[in-house]
Records
---
Amino acid sequence: MDPCDERRYIRKRKQVAYERTEPTELIRLLGLPASVTLPDIENYTAKVLLAFGKDDYQSDAFWMACEKLHFECNLARNKDAVIEAFQTKNHDIVVIDYRNPKFIDGEGICKALRNLKSTQFTVIVAVVKRSAIEKEDSNIEPMLNMGFNRVLMETSCLSQCINELLQLYKSDVEPRVQLATAQAVYLALDKSSDVVHITDHNLNLQYLNKTSERFLGYNIKEVKDKPLLDANSVDNKELMVQQLQRGREWEGLISWKRKSGEPLLLSGRVIPAAIPGRSPSHYIFIHESPYMSHDKRLSTSAHLSKNPDLPKTQNNRKGSLDMKSISSDGLRRQSIAKLHNLSIEAPITKVISLITSVQESASPEVIQTLDKVVDILRTTELYSPQLKDDKGKTGDPITSDLMGALLSSGSTVTPITRRSSSDSGSVPRIGLSRTTYKTHNISLQMKELLDTSLLWDFDIFQLEDISGKRPLVYLGMNLMSHFDVSSSLGIEEMILYNWLTIIELNYNAKNSYHTSTHAADVMQATAGFLERERLKQILDPLDEAICLIAAAAHDVDHPGKSSAFLSNSNHELAILYNDLCVLESHHAALAFKLTMSDDRVNIFKSLERDVYKAVRQSVIDMILATEMTRHFEHLAKFVNVFSIKKDDDSPDGGRSSPDTLNWTAPENIALIKRMLIKCADVSNPTRPVQMCVEWAIRIAEEYFNQTDEEKANNLPVVMPLFDRATCSIPKSQIGFMDFIINDMFEAWEEIIGFPQLVVNMKCNYEYWKQLDEMGIQKIQDVILMQHRTPM
Ligand SMILES: Nc1ncnc2c1ncn2[C@@H]1O[C@@H]2COP(=O)(O)O[C@H]2[C@H]1O
């Protein structure tokens, strides 16, 4: 459709349900180049006021354009209404209909608005008739002088109105917002009780605040562009300048001369201001207010006791002293001093001290980079995942959706009714067996299949079929027996069988992905990893048992919805766990609740108290490690500790571990077990392609169901792009592998030596890329292609 032919569409808009258009989609709809970025409407919503005496295509087009851009829009019919609306909302843009004074007095409105002080930062636009502008002798200057910023020719074209508003936003509103912010900053500086001076890079004064004016007696006109400091102002001025030029802050005493000639010594700091990568262009001098820092000055300066004027100055200002903040500040300083006196030092403090000492002799660029490093190290969120800006902004939206949902636990509260979970209720009853578990009860087909249970291409879906959807018990018994778990725990095999049965019964068969087949698959991957020589050397039989148990139970009673969904729907589990690690906490708690519910399922009953404690702690730790919001934290810790040095001369073909690393230290074993279960949990993209595809379909189906339910119940949609009508399965898989899988499996493979993982992973990645290039998106089409793909 010709975008300018949208007039009919606009006229009909009141009957059409309005659909929110995402900015990126809008760019596509409008056919704008991908490089165009829409205003940061997440953070700032522009406010537009339409001054139109009556509705017509023009007011409709602007109204619609505002909706598309997510700008707030108001309409006023006459001068009084415009002034009233403006005084309430202080709009960024006012569009005035200037076509016919019969309907609305455009000139009067513009003048009245400009008479208000608050329109200083407002863009006023006049919409004029085509003929008014197309005339050869047309002259808009009088209108500009009247107070309009822009004169637009009438148009019924929606995209033209959108473009106009966008341009106004970019060229006028944004800079004005920034200007207003800058004014606010100046105001803050003027109101600050600190003495503030700003100089250029030659230390010539550019700005001083009101407190400085009061204390030193100069106003800016008298001293602008004059040197701020004289030779005696600072003890070692050269050193200070050197440090500032290198981009480093300086702290110390500066001796000032008041206009009246009296000296004034102030302690403070000087901060270089620079565009990143450049040398400083300005220096900011901040001195604690002479009245606020009186005590400190007295104690730091011998000069001061000789200066009788200061206490007088302080007395003059006494009314403005904030005694509470002074005393609490004093207390804070005392406690910091106490802390410094204690003989404790956190490793991070040592690291920061080392970096700071390196900065002493570094170049300005290195100093700036190290400053950033120190800033990052000072946060408490060192391992919290943050999507890199470029990926977050320009990456595939499905990937952003998926990563947003996996890596954050955002929630909004709206009630729904689902009740489930045996967490707070009673444990389901099952037919517990007291007889001996007999392996010979299984069919020949099952036996043949289970003979391959340790192979990476083990067919879990065939097991799902032939076990009547009870793969966990069959495979579980096979693997537990292989690793002799009953001996490690000192129990009969029958208890293991009962335990696997009760755990399997508590997986929800109705889910499409999080069923006991997924648990069995994770257990199978776990066994595959435990079989690697490297891990055999590190983990003992009890560790192996812990890994298999954690894998079997890690998603028990998964509702097929994410933790965010549970939080958003006020689910009892979210309430119970305060929206924190909701699902994983539930899986771990329920696993133990079920285990402890009856002696016949209690696989831990023979363990000594302290061994049980350690086993319990480790199983919980592993299950909690499957929580995806901490994915990057776990991965970063693992890579930091186990980063492998490539050494081609080493006897094991280039694989060598850091010499000093104690692989079997408890904290390192814990890291390995966490990474093991994490990799097993999301190992599906490293399986043979047919299985990889089946898992992708199952997880997508589960996500789609969640989106359906969120929409049906009017809940926040956690992953809006996982909508069965529009989602691209290949794109979601490419994104998942790019962000979560590829790096983690490369690192894991390096440690455990399992090339098949990475080979499969790369093949599958290529497969999804091919499907994507072929334009395949929907589940049905992926299934069709799957049937064509050879095993
Ligand atoms: N193939 C996949 N594609 C997209 N997401 C996946 C895939 N496999 C696993 N996941 C997600 O990764 C999560 C790992 O923890 P959960 O099993 O709780 O839930 C899992 C899914 O949300």
---
Amino acid sequence: MTTTEDRLPLTAHYDVRRDAAGHRYLEPFVRGFDLTRIPLLNKGTAFTEEEREALGLDGLIAPQVDSLETLVDRLYRDYVRVQEPLDKHVFLRDLQDRNEVLFYALLAAHVEEMLPVVYTPTVGLAVQQFSRIYRVPRGLVLSTRDIDRAEGTLANVPLNDVRIIVATDSSAILGIGDQGFGGLGISIGKLSLYVVAGGVGPDKTLPVELDVGTNRQDLIDDPDYLGVHHRRLTGDEYLAFVDRFVEATRRRYPKAIIQWEDFSRDAAFTVLERYRKVVPSFNDDIQGTGAVVLAGLLNACRLKGERLRDQRIVVHGAGAGGIGVTDALRRGLMRDGLSDEEARARLFVLDQTGLLLRDRELDGYKRPYAHDSATLDFTYADRALGLLETVQGAGATILVGLSGVAGAFGEDVVRAVQANTRQPIVFPLSNPTAHCEALPEDVLRWTNGEALVATGSPFHPVELGGRTHPIGQGNNAFIFPGLGFGAILAGAREITDEMVLEAAYALADYTGREHPERLYPPVADLPGASVEVAARVIRQALRDGVAQEPGLGELDDPALTERVRAKFWRPKYLPFRAPRADGARS
Ligand SMILES: O=C([O-])CC(=O)C(=O)O
Ligand SMILES: [Mg+2]
């Protein structure tokens, strides 16, 4: 007996085909009312007369036929009436769950205004309130309830050709820690950026929550919390869970890339190393943040007329982001001519206790950046070196914050950096806004407007002494969409460290060329930056021998960039055609 599954491509709701003239059209496998309930298919009042008649929609939709542009304008007028950021987030997420093309058309038309709502900082709030704002399913939740049936669970996803997955275990969401099931919100938010800034079609994206439990007793005790109510799996049990997810994913989506997101400390490094050669994958907080910070610091040095190799860099925070940034900077310093040893000697990393020193007891992933207190050229009292002492002792010219600790960069610390250089480079990068190490306005005030400042979450430009200082957003959003898109287009079987490093230099070069006075491009230019990052990532994948997509090697640089542009998904409603009874193309 043939089941429906044998005949239809698994659970997808439609196919995209081309007519004889090469124009794309969509062939839905559902009709009538169902079309208005599947977000990737629903066009609202933009279904044409012919589509309504052919697809069983007559009488179900308001009579007027609108264009996508009209709908965008109408929705925007509704949107601006919503006051609270979280309500705006819910407004946009509701739209996404109702009419996905319209959501992306609206977002694309107002990137700068809406990114802080679908992404940081408001996504932080949405994650914290996730169980309360939860309405309809989106993405995949694998929990301790169903991980033993992972393959069947993945088969339920109504998408057949997923290329990019953002997966989190929610153990360290942004700077706000363990969020349990709510972390699904960050995976959803990141993937919106993949679409609007990275050119990946929404039907190619899958947000994933690995619900292994939570260590937050308040969540476990909360009857309204929608995740599994037990403590987190650890050790071998935890890894067995992630193994099953990876295996099932490989089988269902052999071409998919996995972006690991917001895993805490050791888990972040363990998971990345365990799977990066099994499935093309990268960790956004270690590698994406590393690359975006390297790019911003290269630009800051360019603006100062100095070189990276001449800087002394203090990184405050030794989680996935802090160590990832340190690693990217080590590679950048080496590309600028230093030996590995010389590069390490210029990098000073602090965790909650203070400067990483070899004679302290340290987690394995921190050890590579610990200094030997015997050879350190500034004195080590019989206590841990704090931030101020390290900045002074190390002669820091650059200060980077990935600690999640609001206000960690006080006036004394920032002034101490300026004692070492007229134009200190200060990047308080923790997200969301409430966890930022210092307010840009304060940093500029304390340094008489001389500091070069970038943050992780968006800040308004600062007016000081008659000058306007735009605040660059040093957020991995400038890296991951282009890195992932490039890896997809290359058919990369692995995402190498060199591809990530190349993404950083691509972003630095793009900013220097297109926005020479800035540390990062304006957010409205995210798509432009992503195209450049993607093209250079493909080139590096070819150099590294990991690109499997045929024919790319023959393209010169402009042609490669053109290829990326041509593949960039843009929100528009495709014409629909009812499937022909004989299954042939119409
Ligand atoms: O999501 C963001 O805004 C950047 C990021 O990865 C984090 O802070 O964990
Ligand atoms: Mg993150």
---
Amino acid sequence: MSAAAAPLPPAAVSPSEAGRWWLLVPAAGFGRRMGGETPKQYLRLGGRPVLEITLSRFAGLPGLAGVVLVTSESLPEDLMPSSDVVGVPIHRVDGGASRALSVRNGLAVFRDRWAGLSPGQGDGLTDGLGEWVMVHDAARPCVLRGDLERLLDAARYPDGALLTAPVRDTIKRVDADGRVTGTVDRRTLRHALTPQMFPVGVLLEAIEQGLVAGAEITDEASAVERLGLAPRVVDSATDNLKITHPEDLGIARAILRRQGVLDD
Ligand SMILES: Nc1ccn([C@@H]2O[C@H](COP(=O)(O)OP(=O)(O)OP(=O)(O)O)[C@@H](O)[C@H]2O)c(=O)n1
Ligand SMILES: C[C@](O)(CO)[C@H](O)COP(=O)(O)O
């Protein structure tokens, strides 16, 4: 359903044409499904906080200009990761009551920080809305560099792109009584993962329109789809687990060991 009203802000055709892009990490969740006192992005695997491992997966990627890290307002200083783990500056922003609001708060930095700048002021950016941003869950530390590089290659203005995984099981449609009403052709389905990559202005417009409309926005692509755009899927490794439930910690640890990210 196309909801586009205002013309979309301009941006380079692709992140490589822009020569730079930004990473936005929503890390302001409470981890309720994980249980316990500590939000899951600060639990440790191999002695390292999940968030630090996640950020480290992006270190050295060509064109990465900086990180917008969205955390709870009351983040203890000792939980704030060092920019050394990713090799570029980290700008911390307060999160919101939902993941979509947290992402929106992070995107607003690009508009508010650069608002009023004339060409050549600041760090050479005249319009933050023309930047490219990759949004990645703090709770996904197992993402592979090769998949990140393929996502960078696939993103095009204005539709963007996202990492996905094929569906490996037969999918059933069921009714309220838990009875099967049909079988869905899984060839037309994908698991949406993160990162998801879009022009900042397009994504900010999409999320703000979706929030105003009361739409359920569980990932960035679902907001962009509401504008009538068609993000490109990039099928990727099934390693890219989102740590959600307690059992996911052991799975993630085993994946990270297999990837050589963790020793023990
Ligand atoms: N208000 C929120 C909610 C979630 N997130 C972030 O979005 C990512 C994916 O969300 P999810 O796995 O749902 O994390 P939580 O909301 O913390 O988990 P739960 O739903 O179990 O509470 C996580 O990195 C989480 O920190 C966020 O930045 N702001
Ligand atoms: C963004 C996401 O990770 C894509 O699969 C997912 O939608 C997050 O959902 P959650 O309920 O906020 O964990």
